[in-house]
Design brief:
It is a single chain. With 234 residues, the protein is α/β, with parallel strands linked by helices. It has two domains: 2-67, 60s Ribosomal Protein L30, Chain: A, CATH 3.30.1330; 75-232, SPOUT methyltransferase, trefoil knot domain (Alpha/beta knot, 3-Layer(aba) Sandwich), CATH 3.40.1280.10. Helices cover 34% and strands 21% of the residues. It has eight helices and ten strands. It has helices at residues 2-10, 27-38, 48-55, 95-107, 125-130, 146-155, 193-197, 216-232, and strands spanning 15-21, 43-46, 63-67, 85-90, 112-116, 140-143, 159-163, 169-170, 180-185, 201-204.
């Protein structure tokens, strides 16, 4: 529901039509219908069984948008502010993880997210749902070579901080108040060796229990809110 609302409210994605369950009467759905009609988007009121068939087993909360795909942003989009905060994802292949990272990134005012062409979840409906609509606002840049993109970020005067168990600093011991790019590894292998070697510094999140690593979205949330904390006190 939130993903459909934000897709309409942002007006950044082509919405062909909206399907709404006849049995759904929530305030948010009424807002969705109202915005759709304001924008000239056709609204079809249907039985819930019709939406169930369209959703193919996914949860739809009484509304489905038929939309064009989200376009990837240009690399230059990352530098629209004087103090960029960029998230680089090295091999995040689970769409729910990618969506969760996008959601947190939007809450923390991230300039954009960089992903590689290979070994990354594409911007599918699952990603959009998991982002709770944040994908309508956070630019995602897809690059052919992640190491080359990291080098380009350095040339643009960003400090590149890798988040890795081999880090020499705890995550709170680094100064994030300048332009920075945070690099997170994939679900299975973490940062690849070349990516790790091209980071300016590595920071670590201490693991005090028996599990060796955190979920990527949780790790991103911890680090990003440390950036927010430091910058808010500046």
């Amino acid at each position: 529901m939130h993903a459909v609302y934000e897709a309409l409210a942002s007006n950044k994605q082509l919405i062909e039509r909206i399907h709404v369950s006849r049995a759904a009467h929530s305030g948010k759905l009424k807002e969705i219908v109202s915005i759709a009609r304001e924008r000239g988007v056709p609204v079809r009121i249907e039985d819930r069984t019709a939406l169930d068939r369209m959703a193919c087993g996914e949860i739809h909360q009484g509304v489905i948008a038929v939309a064009g795909g989200i376009e990837y942003a240009s690399f230059e989009t990352l530098f629209k502010t004087d103090r960029p905060l960029v998230v680089v994802l090295d091999g995040v292949e689970d769409p729910h993880n990618l969506g969760a990272v996008i959601r947190t990134a939007e809450a923390c005012g991230v300039s954009g997210i960089v992903v590689p062409e290979r070994h990354s979840a594409p911007l599918t409906a699952s990603v959009i749902r998991a982002s709770a609509g944040a994908s309508a606002y956070v630019p995602v840049v897809r690059v052919k070579n992640l190491v080359a993109a990291i080098d380009e970020l350095k040339e643009r005067k960003l400090w590149v901080i890798g988040v890795d168990a081999a880090g020499t600093l705890d995550w709170t011991d680094y100064d994030y108040k300048g332009p920075v790019a945070l690099v997170f590894g994939g679900e299975h292998d973490g940062l690849r060796r070349l990516v790790r070697e091209h980071c300016d510094v590595l920071v670590r999140l201490p693991m005090l229990g028996r599990i060796a690593s955190l979920n990527i979205a949780v790790a991103a949330g911890v680090i990003l809110y440390e950036v927010v904390r430091q910058r808010s006190r500046q």
